[in-house]
Structure prediction request, 243 residues.
Amino acid sequence: MRRRLGGRASHRRAALRELRADFRALFDLLPRHRIRKSPILVPTVIAAAIVLMLAFNPQRRQAIESLRGILPFLAPANVARWIPLTPRGVVPTGFASATLWSFALVAIARMASTPALRAHWRLSVFGGITLLMLIAFGAVFWATTLQVLLANQWTNGRGQGMALLAFLFCYVAWAFHSLRFWFGDLQRRCPVCLRQLGMPEVRGNAHDVLLAPLETETVCLHGHGLNLESHWGRVFAPDDLRF
Prediction:
């Protein structure tokens, strides 16, 4: 009498797992850590988000027309009525323009007042490019969301007004957190290769300021130098033997 010891599929899965040839093992072979620390990851994600918002927007031409009001020295598009939007799909951009350019001025002032960013031109160029892409994302996100909220008049007018007010607060919160993320991302990067620093080592005491202050030491995984960040600032010591 023949007896089957399990199915072929289960034996196949067990064999692939033992040979480290299953999907989980193959996923571990992907250069996830290298991609996560790559300097092109953040700009690529922002650019992909902009392209997707425009690609899935049936009124993308009107959205692009609305964006000219965010650019300096250009008159905004004429919006006759807000609810519903006339001409259809063209949104007001005064609030977004004030928010985004205030965000840009604060970011530029923060960059200019940070010695570590002034001393390394690569970080400054990378920060400027990322800043412009964040502004472009904020502009497209504003136009796309307002097209959805103001395209038609809701049955409950109070609910539509509350949704619009909530979006304004969320937009300001997004700008604030984007500014924090942008500046923190610059501080975590190597000024030579622009990849994120790794192998953090924390030492010192958070309550001490002079004797043993709390400081974090990170290194560039490609051997470009050592970064030391403490209460007194951020210092990057390049590898003199190689550069």
Observations:
- The chain has two domains: 33-187, 198-238.
